[in-house]
Amino acid sequence: MLLASRLLSLIFFLLYFQMNLLGQKTQQPKISEPTSADSGYVLLLPTDQFLRNTSELPLDGFSSPEAIPGSPFDDTDSEQKVPSEVPMDLKSLMKPQFDFAAEREAEASGVELSSYDLSMKLPVYPIFGPPPPFLTTAYSYTRINAPAALDLPENLHQFTLGMSWMSRLNDKWMTRTMLNGVFASDLYNTGSMAWQFRGGFFAIYRPNVKWNIAIGALATGQDDIPVIPVLGAIWEPSPSLKVNLMLPNPRITYLLIDSERRQHWGYVGGGMSGGNWAYNRNDGSPEQLNYREWRLVLGWESMPPKKPGSFRSTGTKFMMEMGYVFGRKFELERNATDIKIDNTLLLHSGISF
Fold first, then answer.
1. What DSSP line would sit under 51-85, residue for residue?
2. How many angstroms separate the Cα of 89 from the Cα of each of 72, 84, 306?
3. How many CB atoms lie within 10 A of CB 169?
4. Which of 68-72, 98-102, 189-193 comes out lowest in average pLDDT?
5. What is the pLDDT of residue 165?
């Protein structure tokens, strides 16, 4: 209990620190045609799926050195170890992964939000050996039900095409590189505001089987703060406990039930979420909307156990979480006034196969 309370305190401290960092904004008079050099630009950070996903280390996938046969971190039973000379199972290795998620935030201040995300991660042939590069395509639909007086868009769309690659330098170091092109719009404003180019690079250090330490940077695609530094760690003191201190979504995960066919995990965590899109206001003028929120969640995940010597777990994964959402606001690039809305509850569910 003492350890858990200290870990939760550390998570809340990290969230508080990042809220202060990302929440700083200088109020400026309303301007009609800002340029990249104008100080009146609102801080528009990619707080959507890109920032959440790219700052998490995929320890259940290719990045885990102990999952590599013949690695010094391979602590599986000697009888279960797979010889390094065994050919790769390309059929399994090249299998695409599909993810679907749905989320709803209850009405507050007259505003109700719902979103639906669909993505496909397609491995590219591993010319330089495993793990292979991944090609990612994704579509996200967000619906905003709000009073007409707020002049907010109702239907928002986001299309993403990206590439990511992890490279194992040696038994202790790995790198992860990401590049994404994003089109986010109400489909009426299709100008330069709707196009975003994002990327990132991590160096991951694994001194032993319990620790992963990452340092890197994310390119936001925005003029005000083009790069965000990222520093964090993931600690696995036992096979049944994982402590993820990577921002922007730290969490503590505990193994509840472990059977031969499935593992059931429970977790508590928090983080930031949101997104930004280009749209046309009611008078036809172009605008860029940034939505930002903070959340505390309690969740459940169910997945097949990863086989010794495999590069990733296979099979269908389920997840569901509920949480409390706070610090919610809409920021407009050409309007210095933020639209703040009350706290609310959320329900999020997803499936991966």
1. HHHHTS--TTTTT-GGGSTT-TT--S-TTTPPPTT
2. 22, 12, 15
3. 10
4. 68-72
5. 87
What pLDDT does residue 132 have? Answer: 78
pLDDT of residue 53: 46
* Cα separation, 235 vs 225, whole angstroms: 30
Residues 6+ apart with CB under 8 A from 106: 112, 344, 345, 346
Averaging pLDDT over each range in 40-54, 174-188, 227-241, which range is the top one?
174-188
Of 151, 162, 155, 127, the C-alpha closest to 54 is 162
CA nearest neighbour of 320 among 352, 348, 286: 348
Report residue 183's pLDDT band, with 50, 70 and 90 as the boundaries.
Answer: very high
pLDDT by residue (tens digit) across 215-244?
888 887 665 567 778 888 999 999 999 999
Residue 72: what are its φ and ψ, rounded to 5°? -60, -20
pLDDT at 82 over 50: no
On whether the pTM is more than 0.85, the answer is: no
136's enclosing H/E stretch is strand 134-145
* Domain range list for the chain: 2-18+60-72+96-352
Q: Tell me the CA distances in angstroms from 85 to 70, 88, 125, one per residue in order.
A: 9, 9, 19
Contact 303, 313 (CB under 8 A): yes
Q: Cα torsion at 52, 45, 98, 253 (round to 10°)?
A: 10
Domain spanning 2-18+60-72+96-352, CATH class: mainly beta
Burial class (CB in 10 A: 0-12, 13-18, 19+), 43: middle
> Do residues 272 and 250 touch, judged by C-beta distance below 8 A?
no
Pairing assessment for the beta strands 344-352 and 317-332 based on DSSP bridges = antiparallel
What's the average model confidence in pLDDT over 251-278? Answer: 92
Q: Which of 4, 118, 46 is nearest to 272 (CA)?
A: 46
